Amino acid sequence: MFTTLSLIASFALLPQAQQPTTILAPDAIIAEDGKLLEGYKVVVANGKIVEVSATPRTNGVEVKLNGILAPGFVDAFSQAGAERFITEQSAKVTPELRAADGVHLSDDAWQELAKHGVTTAHLVPDPTNVLSGSGALIATATEAGVAKIADATTVQIASLLSSSVSDRRVGPSSLAGALEVLQQSIADHGARALGHSPWFFVEDAAGARGVTSLMSDLKVTTAKFILLGDQGDYAGLFANQLVGLPAFGMGGLARRAEIWRRMAKANISVAFGTRMSSSEYGALRSSAMAWSRITRDPQGAFASITTNPAAMLSRNDIGRIARGSRADLVLWSAHPLDAQARVLATMIAGETVYRADVSTNN
Amino acid sequence: MIFSSLLITTTALLAQQSSQWAVDTVHLGDGQTMHNVLITINDGKITAVTQNADADDAQSVANAHMTPGLIDAYSYMGVDGATLEESRESTASLKLSNSLRFDAPAFGYASSEGVTSAYISPASMNVIGGLGCMVKTHGGQVASLFGDAGAAARLISDSAALKVTLGGDPSMGNHTGSGKWTTSYTARRPNTRMGTVWVVRREFYRALEYVELRDQGQVAYNADLEVLAAALSGDIQVRVQAREAHDVETALRLQEEFGWPRMLIEEATNAHKIAEMVAREHVPIVTGPAFDSSSRSIARGPSAAELAYAAEPGQICCEDYHAPGEEHVNESGKLELSEFALSLLPAVAPRYEAAPGLARGRRSEGSGSTPALPALLADASVKFAMGSAESHDSPLTESSLIYQARRAVRWGLDKDIALSLITSVPAQLCGYGDSLGQIKTGFDADLVLWSGDPLDPTSLPLVVIVDGQVVADNR
User: Fold this and answer.
1) A–B: how many Cβ contacts below 8 A?
2) How many angstroms separate the CA atoms of B406 and A176, rounded?
3) Ranges of residues in chain A whose predicted pLDDT is under 70
4) Where are the domains of chain B?
5) Which of B90, B131, B141, B145 would you mutate first to test chain A, the one with the most A CBs within 10 A?
6) Is some CB atom of chain B closer than 8 A to the CB atom of A236?
7) For the domain with range B70-301+355-436, which CATH number is right: 3.20.20.140, 1.10.10.410, 3.30.470.20, 3.10.20.600?
8) Which of A190, A219, A251, B122 could make an SS bond with B129 (beta carbons 3.0 to 4.6 A apart)?
9) Which chain B residue is nearest to residue A169, measuring alpha carbons?
10) What is the dihedral of CA A170, A171, A173, A175, to 10 degrees?
11) Looking at the complex, does the CB of residue A160 fall below 8 Å from at least one CB of chain B?
C-alpha cells in the first residue's frame, strides 16, 4: 500500500508543466490480449507511454506499484455529462451538429467515470435525425477536476431507427424514405456529410441491409454499425465484423446471454457503449465481465471496452498499454474483469486524476 | 461488405452441390412434357437433361412429376411499412430492395410451395412507387442469429422494374385538407383517380424536359428523373398496376403518350372485358390473385390481427377512451359490441394490416372479377403470366401460386398453358427468359418435385431445389 501512495504522492507533487519521465513498475500490466504480463514496466513522459519493457532503456524515476496496471476503458458511445438532449429537431438532417458543443465538462459524471476506470468517453449526438452530427472524444478527467475535449469532431452519427423515420408529413415516414434522405444529403453535401467513417445506429435487418447496400453503392467501406433493438433478429448480418453494442442492462437476461453467445460464435467483435442502456458508471466493466462469462472469451471481453472502441474510432492511441499511446492508465487491486477488483488510482494523459482513499478502504 | 461475403458464401455452397434426379414425368416449363428423364445438376445449374438414361445413384420418387421452380411474377413478399415512403407521391428512384425484409416468413411459405423466384413490387400507395426487385426465395444471408442457414431471400436484381399505380390506391384516404388540417398528413395528394394520372403525366413531362436539358449539359443530376428517363428509353420496364378496365385503358393511353417501350400491366382484374384491345396492343399482363370470391379476406381466412381482436375484444372499442381494465359501456349502460358481432368479425373485416397500402382497393375495384380471367385472356391471345400479390404472406396454402394455377385450370385454362404461366412466361416477362423458368441445360437448377401432376389438387411439393440446393424436403 505504501508504494501506491508513493506513486500518487509523486504525481501530486509534480508541477504539471514539467513532468519528468516516470517508470511505473506494477505487479503486472494487462497486455492487449487481456492477459497479465508480470515484470513489465511502463515508461511515461509528457502524457504518453514511451516504452513498455521488462528492462526499460529510458531513464527516469521508478515507482513501484502494488496492483495491476490496465489501460483506461473507452466508452464507445456515451451520453454522460452532457445536455439532456444532444439533438436538434428542427431539421431532418443535422450533419453540422457537434456533440462537443453540448458537453458539460464540469459535470460530476466525468469524475465518476474516471473513478470507475473509464478514461475516454465518446459522446455522441442522439440518433434522432437521419444524420445527427458528429461525436466528441472526451478525456473524462484532468488534475483540474474537469473533463477535457480530446477530439471535437470524431465521426458522423447516422440513424436508421424507427423513431427517426416516423414523420409522415415532411418525411421520412419510413426506412425507405430515411435511406433516401441519407442519399440526398450525400448528394447535397458530398462525402463530407458522412465524414471519414460514419457510424450508423440500426435496430433491424432491413435498416442494416439498406445502409450496407447504400454504402456499397457509394464505395464507402469504413462505415460502422451500432446494433440496438433485438440483435438476435439481425446480428447474423455482421459475422466477422466489429460492431458497437449497448452495455449490459438487466432486461431479457436469458435471451441476451444466448444472443451474445451466438454473436461470439459468428466471430462478431463488439465495442460496448453506455448510451441507450445503463447509466451506471460501472456499466462498461460489468458488460465486459458478462461478455467474458457468457462467451468464455475474456480476451474479446477486455477488447470490448479497450481496443475495440478505439478501433471503431480508428484510433490506436487509446485503449492499450503500448508505446505511443496516451498515458491513460488505471491501477486496479486485481484483474479488472475480476468481480472483486477495484480502482486504486487513475491516470489520464500522464496526470493522476483520481486516487482511492485508502484509509476508508473505499 | 455484407453482399461481398454473401457472394462468397453462396459460391462456397454451390461448389459442393452435384446431384442427379431420375423423374417419371418432367414438365419442362415451355409447355412440353417428357417422360423417364435424368436431370443432372452441377454448381447450381442444370448440366444435362437426358431421356431414358440410367444412373445408379440418381434420386427418385415413384410416379413423381418435376417442374421448374415456380416464378411469382407479381408479389409483395417482405414489403411492409418500412418500404413505403408516404411523404411524397412519386418516389421513382427509391429501391425497394434497400428496405425489403429479406427474412420475412413469406419467402419460406412461398419456397415450400414451390416458388423459387419472385418479382417483388413496391407498394401501391404512391403514384410512382419506385424500383421493384427480383429475388430467389432462398439462399440469402440470414439476419437472425437463431435462423437456419440460407432461409432468407437472395437479391438478384435491385432495379427490375418501375412501379406506377393507377386506380384508387394512391388516392385512397387522401384529401386536400381544410382549415387547421392543411398541413396535416391527411392533406396528402392526389385525392382522385384523375389526380393520380395527372401526377404520372407531370412527372414524365418533367423527365422529358430533364432529358433534353441533360443532353445539353444544363441541369444537375436528379435521381428520380434519371429513373423516369430510363423508363422512357426502355432501359427499364414500366409496370402499371391497373385493376378496372378503364384503368387498363388509361395505361394504354399513357403508353401511347410517352411511348414507354416496355410496359407491363399488373393485376388487370377486369381486363377480360377489354381483352381484345389489350391483345391488339401487345401489352403483357401479370394477373393478380384471382379467387372464387372477390373478397380476399374470406379466401385467405382471418389474419393474425383479426384473431387477436376476437380474442381480446377490448382492443376494438375501448383503447382510445378508457383506461385498460375500465368497463366500456355506452349511455344506455350496455356493452357496445355484442359477442355476436365479434364472432362475425374475423369473417368480415378486411385485412389490410399486412402492409399498409398494398391491397387497398382490391375489394372495391374487383367487383367484376372472375376466376376465369386467365382462361379468358388466353382465349384472346393476350400475353400474360400469373402472380400471387400478398398471397404468400399467409401460411394458408390455398392462396399460393400453384393454387392460383389450379384454380385457373378449374375455370377453363389449358393445363400446359397454366404451368407455363408460372414458369417460363413470367421468367421472360421479368427479363430472365434465358436462365429461369425452364428445365433446360444451362438454366439455374431451380426445380420442384411433386407427388403427382402439379395441377392436381392432391399433389404436394415433395422436394424444392433452389440453385441446386434442396431447401424443402417432404419425401
Assistant:
1) 122
2) 36
3) 1-19, 163, 167-171, 191, 250-251, 276-279, 358-362
4) 1-67+438-475, 70-301+355-436, 303-321+334-348
5) B145
6) yes
7) 3.20.20.140
8) B122
9) B185
10) 180
11) no
Task: Give the domain ranges of chain A.
Answer: 2-71+319-360, 73-312
Whether chain B has a CB inside 8 Å of the CB on A176: the answer is yes
What is the nearest CA distance from A169 to chain B, expressed in angstroms?
5
Q: Three-state SS for B361?
A: coil
What is the per-residue DSSP string for B262-280?
Answer: SEEEEE-TTGGGGHHHHHH
Indicate whether this complex's ipTM tops 0.85. no
Task: Determine, for residues B86 and A241 on separate chains, whether the beta-carbon distance falls below 8 Å.
Answer: no
CA dist., res. A199 & res. A178, Å (int): 15
Residue A248's pLDDT is 80
B343 interface with A at CB cutoff 8 Å: no
Q: B85 and A173 in contact (C-beta within 8 Å)? A: yes
The type of residue at A218 is: L
> Is residue B107's pLDDT more than 90?
yes
Assessment of whether the complete model's pTM goes beyond 0.80: yes
Which value, in Å, is the radius of gyration of the alpha carbons in chain B? 24
Which residue does chain B place closest to A236, by CA atoms?
B143
CA distance B207 to B201: 10
Summarize pLDDT for A207-253 with one digit per residue, the tens.
999 999 888 888 888 899 999 989 999 999 999 999 999 998 766 78
Q: Which residue has the cell 390473385?
A: B289
- Which grid coordinates belong to A138? 472526451
> Which residue bears the cell 428496405?
B99
B81 contacts A205? CB cut-off 8 A: no
